[in-house]
C-alpha cells in the first residue's frame, strides 16, 4: 500500500457548490448544525461548523489531503478556529474516536483533520493507527511537506489567534481505508469550527488510490467576484453570505426573507443548517451586512503534475519519513 502525498489532487466541491470528481472520488464542503448547548459552551460569539466530506464508490479510496487555510481579518471580519478541550494541539487529529462525543459536547465541534478509516471503521486503538500527519501543505506546488504543521491550539482560543491551518495528512491504512467498497460511502476528512463572523479560502488538494499521480485541486466554488479565484481554491463562507459571493448584502437578505419559516438549504438562507429559515438566519445577515472577504487568490499554479522521476509517491506511514529525508 502506498501513500500519494506529493500527488496534489484536489477533490473538492461542496454541498454549497457543484460537485467535482476524479474517477469515483469527490469532496463536498458541508455546513453542520451546532447544538445550542455546545454553542453556548464554546463561545458567546457566533459559532459555525463546516465539514470537508469525501464520497467514494467502488474502485476508489481517498488517501491524502493537503491544505492551507487562513481566516480573513479586516475592519469588519474577525474570529478564530475553535480548538476543543480534547483538541490535539500538535497535529489537530480527530479525537472523536468511534463517535464518542454527544451533540451537546463542545469536543464534537473541534477543528480537526480525519480519515475514512478513522471516521467509518475505527479499528485501531489510537488516532495514529488510522491517521498520519506529515507536515505543512505544499500547495500550490506538488511535493513533500517538510515542516511542522500549523494547527489551532486550546491556548489560542481568542480573536486574533488560531487563524491558520496548514497541513498534509493521510490514511495510514491506505487501500484498506474503508469496508464499504461495493457502493458509495461518505465520511469526514476535515472539520472547521469558526468562532466569529469571518471566513477563508481553503487552498489545496486531495488524492485517491485509483487515480495515483493525478492531482485533483480543490475547485472554485465561489460566485460573483469569487468566481475569479485560482484553481485549488475553495471558499469557507463568512457569516451571512448565503450565495457564496464573498459578501453579506441585500442579495443574502432577500434569500433569507424569501424562505422565512420554510425548509431550505444553506444557499437558500438556512445559514445555521437547522433545516429551516428562521429569525436566527435573519439575524446572521442583518448583523453581518456590509462584510466582505476581499479578492480571492488568483495566481497561476504553473505545472500541476511533476514527472514520475521526482518521486511523487510517498510510502505509507512506515516509509514516509525516510523518503522525505532523501529529498532534502
General description of the model:
- There is one protein chain.
- The chain is α+β, with helices and mostly antiparallel strands.
- The protein has one domain (2-240, 297-323).
- The protein is built from 5 helices and 14 strands.
- The strands form 3 sheets. Strands 2, 3, 4, 6, 7 and 10 form a 6-stranded antiparallel β-sheet that branches.
- Strand 11 (200-208) and strand 12 form a beta hairpin.
- The radius of gyration is 19 Å and the shape is globular.
- The two termini are 24 Å apart.
- Residues 6-23, 177-182 and 299-328 have low confidence and may be disordered.
List the main descriptive attributes of the protein structure presented here.
six-stranded antiparallel β-sheet; 10% helix; 5 helices; 328 residues; alpha+beta
Structure described in brief:
The protein is an alpha+beta fold. It has one domain (2-240, 297-323). It has helices at 36-42, 116-119, 250-257, 279-286, 320-326, and strands spanning 2-3, 21-22, 25-32, 47-56, 62-71, 79-81, 112-113, 132-135, 164-170, 185-196, 200-208, 216-217, 233-236, 314-315.
Amino acid at each position: 500500500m502506498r501513500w500519494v502525498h506529493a500527488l496534489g489532487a484536489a477533490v473538492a466541491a461542496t454541498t454549497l457548490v457543484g460537485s467535482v470528481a476524479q474517477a469515483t472520488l469527490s469532496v463536498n464542503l458541508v455546513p453542520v448544525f451546532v447544538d445550542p448547548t455546545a454553542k453556548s459552551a464554546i463561545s458567546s460569539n457566533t459559532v459555525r461548523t463546516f465539514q470537508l466530506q469525501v464520497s467514494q464508490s467502488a474502485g476508489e479510496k481517498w488517501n491524502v489531503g493537503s491544505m492551507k487555510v487562513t481566516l480573513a481579518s479586516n475592519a469588519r471580519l474577525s474570529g478564530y478556529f475553535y480548538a476543543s478541550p480534547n483538541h490535539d494541539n500538535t497535529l489537530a487529529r480527530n479525537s472523536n474516536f468511534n463517535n464518542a462525543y454527544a451533540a451537546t459536547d463542545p469536543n464534537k465541534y473541534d477543528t480537526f483533520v480525519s480519515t475514512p478509516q478513522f471516521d467509518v471503521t475505527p479499528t485501531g486503538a489510537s488516532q495514529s493507527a488510522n491517521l498520519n500527519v506529515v507536515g505543512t501543505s505544499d500547495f500550490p506546488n506538488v511535493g513533500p511537506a517538510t515542516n511542522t504543521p500549523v494547527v489551532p491550539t486550546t491556548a489560542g482560543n481568542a480573536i486574533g489567534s488560531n487563524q491558520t491551518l496548514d497541513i498534509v495528512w493521510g490514511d495510514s491504512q491506505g487501500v484498506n481505508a474503508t469496508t464499504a467498497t461495493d457502493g458509495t460511502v461518505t465520511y469526514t476528512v476535515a472539520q472547521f469550527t469558526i468562532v466569529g463572523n469571518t471566513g477563508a479560502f481553503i487552498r489545496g488538494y486531495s488524492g485517491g488510490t485509483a487515480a495515483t499521480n493525478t492531482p485533483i485541486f480543490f475547485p472554485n466554488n465561489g460566485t460573483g467576484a469569487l468566481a475569479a479565484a485560482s484553481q485549488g481554491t475553495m471558499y469557507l463562507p463568512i457569516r451571512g453570505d448565503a450565495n457564496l459571493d464573498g459578501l453579506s448584502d441585500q442579495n443574502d437578505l432577500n434569500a433569507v426573507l424569501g424562505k422565512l419559516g420554510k425548509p431550505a438549504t444553506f444557499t437558500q438562507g438556512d445559514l445555521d443548517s437547522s433545516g429551516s429559515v428562521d429569525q436566527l438566519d435573519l439575524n446572521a445577515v442583518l448583523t453581518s451586512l456590509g462584510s466582505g472577504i476581499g479578492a480571492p487568490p488568483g495566481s497561476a499554479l504553473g505545472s500541476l503534475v511533476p514527472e514520475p522521476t521526482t518521486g511523487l509517491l510517498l510510502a505509507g506511514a512506515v516509509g514516509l519519513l525516510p523518503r522525505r529525508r532523501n529529498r532534502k
